[in-house]
Specification:
By secondary structure, the chain is α/β, with parallel strands linked by helices. It folds into two domains: 11-146 and 266-311, Rossmann fold; 148-263, Phosphofructokinase domain (Rossmann fold, 3-Layer(aba) Sandwich), CATH 3.40.50.460. The protein is 42% helix and 18% strand. The chain is built from eleven helices and eleven strands. The protein has a seven-stranded mixed β-sheet, sandwiched between helices. A four-stranded parallel β-sheet has the order 7-8-6-9, with helices on both faces. β1, α1 and β2 (41-45) form a beta-alpha-beta unit. It binds 6-O-phosphono-beta-D-fructofuranose.
Length: 329
C-alpha cells in the first residue's frame, strides 16, 4: 500500500532482526548500493528492533558494505525483543527514525520481524518493507527465505562426514537439524544427502516401524543409517534412540548441528536471492510502497501485503516427502 505522505527526504534505514542467516550481508550490501545509486542517504540500525528502540542508528557509506557479500552473520548485528509490542516503545522507536527525517525502512528477518514491519506500517508515516531472512524456510508466501540454502549445504557437509565415521563403526546416527516448527531443512537435506529416514513435524511418525526397518536394513547388509530429525520433533529423540538401539543392538549416536547451521559463507543461491530481493525492496520504497513483503515464487520475485504474507499457510511439500520415502531405505 502506498502512503500519502511528503517524502522529500531520500533517507532509508536498514535493519536485520531475529536469528541471523547467511546471505543477510549480501542483502544489506545490495540494498545499500542500489539505494545510494538512487540518491538515498542510507542508515544502518544495529541489533534489529533493539537498536531502533535504543537509537543505535548510524549513517552508512558505500564502503560500509565492502567485502561482505560472501560473509555469514549480519554486519548490522541482530536482536530479539518483545518490547516492540508495547505502543509507547514502538512510538519511541519510530521517533528515532523520523527525528532524522528517515521515512523509509527495510527489515530483513523472519515472521517475528515481519510483525514489526506491520506495526511500523500501521502506526507511522515510515514506508517499511520486509525481506525474508531465516534459515527455517518457514514463511509460506515465499518459496525460499535467505539462508535456507546455505544452512542445508552446511547440514549436507556434516552428513557426509558423519557417514564416514558411522560406516566405519556400523552405527546409526540421529542428525538433528534446526527449523523450529518447519521440517524443510530436514526434508531437503535428507533427500539431497541420501539419509535413510527423516522425521518431520508435518508428517506422522511411527517410531516402532522405523526401529524395525533400521534393523531390517542392517540384516540386509547396510553398514550405516542416518535418521534426520527435525527440531520440531526433537521430543522423539530419547524414544527413537532407545527403540533403535533395542531393535538393532547397535550404537545409536545423536548430534544436534544447532547454530553451526546459521553461520558460514552464503551459497551462491542465497547471495543471488538476497541481492534480487534487496533491489526489489528498494524499488518498492522508490514507488512509495509500504507494508509489503518481498518473496520469490517459481523463480520470480513477488511482493505482497505483509499481513497476507504472515497469514499465508506454509505448504508442506508432500511430493518431496514421498520421494524421500521412495528412495531412502
Ligand atoms: O529461526 C532460526 C533459528 O535458528 C531456529 O531454527 C531455531 O529454533 C532458533 O532460531 C534458535 O533461536 P535462538 O538464536 O534464539 O536460540
Amino acid at each position: 500500500m502506498a502512503k500519502n505522505k511528503n517524502c522529500k527526504e531520500k533517507k532509508l534505514a536498514i535493519l536485520t532482526s531475529g536469528g541471523d542467516s547467511s546471505g543477510m550481508n549480501a542483502c544489506i550490501r545490495a540494498a545499500v548500493r542500489y539505494a545510494m545509486g538512487k540518491g538515498y542517504e542510507v542508515y544502518g540500525v544495529r541489533h534489529g528492533y533493539v537498536g531502533l528502540i535504543n537509537d543505535d542508528i548510524f549513517e552508512m557509506k558505500y564502503s560500509s558494505v565492502s567485502n561482505c557479500v560472501h560473509t555469514g552473520g549480519t554486519i548490522l548485528r541482530t536482536g530479539r525483543t518483545s518490547e516492540f509490542k508495547k505502543p509507547e516503545v514502538l512510538q519511541a522507536a519510530i521517533n528515532n527514525l523520523t527525528k532524522r527525517d528517515i521515512h523509509n525502512l527495510i527489515v530483513i528477518g523472519g515472521d517475528g520481524s515481519f510483525r514489526g514491519v506491520e506495526d511500523i506500517h500501521q502506526n507511522s508515516d515510515v514506508n517499511v518493507i520486509g525481506i525474508p531472512g531465516t534459515i527455517d524456510n518457514d514463511m509460506g508466501y515465499t518459496d525460499y527465505t535467505i539462508g535456507f540454502d546455505t544452512a542445508c549445504n552446511t547440514v549436507l557437509d556434516a552428513m557426509l562426514k558423519l557417514r564416514d565415521t558411522i560406516t566405519s563403526h556400523d552405527r546409526i546416527m540421529i542428525l538433528e537439524v534446526m527449523g523450529r516448527a518447519c521440517g524443510d531443512i530436514a526434508l531437503y537435506t535428507s533427500v539431497a544427502g541420501g539419509a535413510e529416514y527423516v522425521i518431520l513435524p508435518e508428517a506422522p511418525v511411527d517410531v516402532d516401524a522405523i526401529a524395525a526397518s533400521v534393523k531390517k536394513g542392517f540384516d540386509k547388509g547396510k553398514t550405516s543409517t542416518i535418521i534426520v530429525l527435525a527440531e520440531g520433533r526433537n521430543d522423539l529423540k530419547e524414544e527413537l534412540m532407545e527403540k533403535v538401539k533395542a531393535s538393532t543392538g547397535r550404537t545409536v549416536n545423536h548430534i544436534a548441528l544447532s547454530y553451526i547451521q546459521r553461520g558460514g559463507t552464503p551459497s551462491m543461491s542465497d547471495r543471488v536471492l538476497a541481492s534480487r530481493m534487496a533491489v526489489r525492496a528498494v524499488e518498492l520504497i522508490e514507488c512509495g510502497q509500504s507494508g509489503r513483503a518481498v518473496g520469490v515464487r517459481g523463480g520470480d520475485l513477488i511482493d505482497m501485503n505483509v499481513i497476507e504474507a504472515l497469514n499465508y499457510p506454509k505448504k508442506f511439500d508432500n511430493q518431496l516427502y514421498e520421494i524421500a520415502q521412495k528412495i531412502s531405505k
